[in-house]
User: Fold this.
Amino acid sequence: MNNIQKVVILSLVVTSGLAWIISFTTTDIMMDTMMMTVDYNLLNISLFTVIWTSGMIAMMFPAIIPMILLYNKIIIQKDKSDTLLISKENKTSYSLKTILFTATYIIVWTIVGLILYFGWSLSINNFIVNYFSDDKINILFGIILIISGIYQFTSLKRKCIGYCESPLTFFTRRWHNGTIGAIKMGTYHGMYCLGCCWPYFLLMVALGWMNVAWMGLFAGIIFGEKMWSKGIWISRFTGIAFTIVGILTILGIITLYNDTMNMDIMNIS
Assistant:
C-alpha cells in the first residue's frame, strides 16, 4: 500500500468519523425538520442537506473504501504506463480524480435525500397526517416495509450489489478516462449503490427511523452486503425481516405510528 492510498484511507475514515459525530448530535433536528410543513425555506433545506449528507457519509464511506482504493490504484498504474514516472503534477491529478469520483458519488446521494425530503415531507404533512387515521398510516407503513422487503429479492438488487461488492467488475465494465471519466464513474457508482441501498434510506425517512441506532444497524447491513462475496444473503435475510414486520404491522400486531408522532420506538400491542 503506497502513501497515497494510506492518505485516501485515513481521509475516508476521518471523514466518516466526523460524519457520525454530526449525525449523533443532529438526528433529532433532522426529524423535526422532516416533520415540519415544507415551505421551501432555504434554511430548512440547507440544514436537512447538511445533516442528510453527513449521515450518508457516515453510513456509506466504510463500505466504499475498496472501490475508491482500487480506482486510485488503477489511475496510478495507467499514468505510470503512459509517462514512465510519477511527477508532482501526476500526484495532483490522482488526488483530483479521486476527489471527483468520491464527490460525485456523494452528490448522487444528496439529490436522493432532497427528493425524499420534498416528496415524503410534503405528503406526510399535507395529506397523510390530515386524512389518514393511525390505523391507515400503519397499513401504509406496512406496505412500505413489504415493498422494501420484496425488492431485496429482485434481479435489479442482485445486479447492483454485484457491482458494489466487486469493484474490479465495476471498473472493467464502466471505465472512463480523465477527470470527466471520474465524474461519470462516480455517478455510475452512486446509482448502483442507490440500487442496492434505497430501501434502508426510504425506511429511515418514511418511518421516522432517523436515529443513530437505526443508522448503525443499516450501516452494518450495507457494509456486510458490499464487503462479503455472498452479501446477497444478507439482503435476502433483511428482505424477509422487512416483509414479516410489514405484515405484522398491517395486521395491527406491531404499531409503527401513533398519534403522539413517536415513531422512533416500535410499540408491540
The chain is about 80% helix and 0% strand. Residues 259-269 have pLDDT under 50 and may be disordered. Residues 88-131 form the longest helix (44 residues).
